[in-house]
Write a structure and sequence with these properties.
With about 425 residues, the protein is mainly alpha-helical. Helices cover about 70% and strands about 0% of the residues. The chain has 21 helices and no strands.
């Protein structure tokens, strides 16, 4: 007698949806035109087998299809090939959310937005988005695939980050007086611990920071990097019944909320864990109404009472992310705008730096014109960096990957944090 199984909301929606994605169309076409029987007959005599009953290699018919998928979509390894309907879900509104947040931070740094918390709140939404998306990736990742996860994060985060850091340090060397304190801040940012040891010294040593604190926004990148190193431990590396338990993440989120650190990221992961266990509850009408009310109520609370900002902002941030978790197709313009959001966030200071130099040394312009020049240059620089550097590197990620290199990335990531902690404790007072 067959045991009845309960169909999840995601599986039901996937089975009943009418519009096919490019990937689904490709799979259907591949099944129709490829002579699988002929290929399998040729390859099967040479396909490896194991003497251990429970350690058999992946079936040949599946491996052959995976190879075709790799060649078509650029997957670097079989763990990145979708095994469930939710694996390759795309949320097009996230692209527009990213560019909106990055633009908001840019406008805030230009002094064009009055609310003093708007820059930080944009970062909190970024954090919730990272927790939600990276949490979901890790929930579907096996232990053996963790080096691959870190390698992908390094290509996506490290390369643009260190390019920006090099540009910032180079400009500062030409402009600032180099002191031991200056080197201290550069080392904090290089080792991803600036949020722990650097931001606390803003009021005292602002003038000794590179370009007088221009790279202070690096604290958020350092926070995310620490999250990428911590999150796999409970979600993947320890016993999954414990590390992926909803109550465990409720406790982690509560601790983060009480200490005011990492709360938005932790709530994002908590939402991913809840969806993993209970299905896509956030897509129901009742849940969306509750999320909308939460977002509006918390936003009003933050605006009316600044003292409650740190307690309320994470809930508003994760509510916005879940509200915009709407499945859809990729849009070329949206993908481009989402793509430039990270280099825009990292390098917006360059546009302002050039605009200030232009107004000071070449032609005196009004503040509004200077702001306009800074914003335009920031978007041009971000678009250039994304199109000619970041995008090609992401496309080459599959070719660059190797198990040894990925393990080296893991080692460098953890050693950087530990070295930064040691350096910080010995220098910070």
């Amino acid at each position: 007698m067959n045991t009845p199984t309960k169909t999840s909301f995601a599986e039901f929606e996937y089975a009943s949806k009418k519009r096919q994605t490019r990937r689904e169309k490709f799979l259907a076409e591949m099944e129709r035109v490829v002579p699988w029987a002929l290929f399998l007959a040729k390859l099967e005599p040479h396909y490896p087998q194991s003497d251990r009953r429970n350690r058999q290699p992946m079936p040949l018919h599946r491996m052959l299809r995976i190879h075709c998928m790799q060649q078509r979509f650029g997957y670097s390894d079989r763990q990145n090939v979708c095994k469930t309907p939710d694996c390759h879900v795309y949320f097009p509104w996230f692209d527009w959310l990213r560019i909106t947040l990055a633009t908001t931070v840019l406008l805030y740094h230009e002094g064009l937005l009055a609310w003093s918390r708007v820059g930080n709140f944009s970062v909190q939404v970024f954090f919730a988005l990272s927790g939600w998306l990276i949490g979901w990736i890790l929930l579907n990742t096996e232990k053996k695939d963790i080096p691959h996860f870190y390698f992908n994060r390094a290509i996506r985060i490290w390369l643009p980050y260190f390019l920006t850091l090099i540009l910032l340090v180079s400009a500062s060397i030409l402009h600032d007086k180099i002191t031991p304190k200056w080197w201290e801040f550069v080392i904090y940012k290089s080792l991803f611990v600036y949020n722990w040891f650097g931001t606390r010294q803003l009021d005292t040593f602002l003038q000794e920071m590179p370009l007088q604190g221009t790279g202070n926004h690096f604290w958020s990148i350092n926070t995310e990097e620490q999250f990428y190193l911590f999150a796999p431990i409970p979600l993947v590396l320890v016993n999954k019944r414990f590390g992926q338990n909803l109550l465990i993440w409720v406790a982690i989120a509560l601790i983060a909320w009480l200490t005011k650190d990492y709360a938005s990221i932790a709530l994002g992961v908590l939402a991913a864990v809840a969806v993993k266990q209970y299905g896509n509850f956030h897509e129901t009408t009742k849940a969306r109404v509750i999320l909308f009310i939460t977002a509006i109520a918390s936003m009003v609370t933050m605006l009316l009472n600044d003292n409650l900002y740190a307690k309320v902002a994470p809930f508003c941030a994760v509510s916005i992310v879940l509200l915009l978790s709407i499945r859809g197709e990729k849009n070329h313009l949206g993908k481009f705008m989402g793509g430039i959001s990270y280099p825009l966030y990292l390098n917006a200071w360059i546009g302002g730096f050039i605009a200030n130099a232009f107004a000071k040394h070449i032609i005196a312009v009004t503040p509004n014109v200077k702001h306009g020049i800074a914003i335009l240059l920031s978007f041009l620089i971000a678009s250039t960096l994304y199109w000619f550097i970041e995008r090609p590197m992401l496309n080459m990620r599959a070719k660059l990957y190797s198990g040894r290199l990925a393990k080296l990335v893991v080692l460098v990531g953890y050693l950087s944090i530990f070295a930064g902690i040691g350096f910080g404790l010995s220098h910070f007072s």
